[in-house]
What we know:
With 164 residues, chain A is an all-alpha fold. Chain A is 72% helix and 0% strand.
Amino acid sequence: MVELPAAEVADRSGVNRATVYRWWPTPADLLADAVAFHWDYRIDAPDTGSWEGDVRSAMTEAVALVDEPVERAIMAAMATGRYPEFNAVVTDAWTKSLPQWVGMVERAVDRGEVRPEVDPISVVNLMLAPLIATSLLGRRGTSLQDLEMLIELVYRATATPPER
Amino acid sequence: MVELPAAEVADRSGVNRATVYRWWPTPADLLADAVAFHWDYRIDAPDTGSWEGDVRSAMTEAVALVDEPVERAIMAAMATGRYPEFNAVVTDAWTKSLPQWVGMVERAVDRGEVRPEVDPISVVNLMLAPLIATSLLGRRGTSLQDLEMLIELVYRATATPPER
Lengths: 164, 164
């Protein structure tokens, strides 16, 4: 069993220790919940019917998610590298959800909205990483204004050039 | 004085404790060095004369930097939020270096290479965050192939559309 003491998670996340212990009395509870969270609560890749809609939907949901104290604590714990088994569990869950994200990009390529030469996983990285970096290093959320700019940049990065 | 015990840094970074103690016998040494590192060692905004050259140069240097164990340990310590004074010192150093990054984007706008409506700080976030997220959550470097794709995406996101 991976060791991920609740006290550490509390210290690292800034959440009250009593709260963490109430939620997760044992490391097993914590790990189980973290995995369930990553499986069930994390955002699904959207399918709005347009690439612009999908980018907007995914990034808007991601802004709220990565600013959650529990999600931030999970990512901070991963960043420390102190619990390799924990990282493996979370990374594995993410890897299993990747095909639906790749599918989101591929549908947009099929609709002619996204350049076929883009690598879908790099696009997902470009969508989510600026929000994650702000959450982890700035320990704050991304402002609506910054979110709008990032959505526009990701859209431009990927969209098929307009017809001449 | 901020407390940032070397033992913790060792545990979090995966660097040997003895190595950390040899480098930084006291927390004060560690903090001083972290600040110096962020002031002196961190990459300067490039000025290659072209936007494509600047994007490539900055991101290529950043890939190596964010994969350094010490840099990763600094970012992981920031992500935990456990040492607010440490975060403040590093964030302050970064804030002071921001004008040169903004200047890099503004020069490209002046040359007509970058769309004037882009927000320079969001562009810098887009350039560096995917590399940082891979370093922190994947605890690995970005492959050359992924770097090339990300450079291309950032360039497309920001470049002035070709003349019709």
